[in-house]
Write a structure and sequence with these properties.
The protein is mainly alpha-helical and about 80 residues long. The protein contains three helices and two strands; from the N terminus they run βαααβ. The protein has a two-stranded parallel sheet. Keywords: Membrane, Transmembrane, Transmembrane helix.
């Protein structure tokens, strides 16, 4: 499959799909960063809520990323 060169170029760092990808990665990585928090200190319900929010955000980010790139109005590239 060849790229559609008829579309104008958009810098990937300015694309909404890049933001969606970063949100998804953040939702996956942040629980690992804060994973050493003692569940007894914050409560089991808070830990379950944090895990549920991370799962929802990661799924929503992936859907957002897919939706943004399925029918692009611009092609991603660092060119002119």
């Amino acid at each position: 499959m060849t790229p559609n060169t008829d579309l104008p170029i958009l810098n990937p760092l300015k694309a909404r799909s890049t933001v969606a990808a970063l949100v998804t990665v953040g939702a996956i990585v942040l629980p690992e960063v804060f994973g050493d928090i003692d569940p007894e200190a914050v409560g089991d319900t808070a830990m379950q809520l944090a895990e549920a929010v991370a799962n929802i955000v990661s799924i929503a980010g992936m859907v957002w990323f897919w939706f943004e790139r399925r029918a692009p109005h611009r092609r991603l590239g660092f060119g002119k």
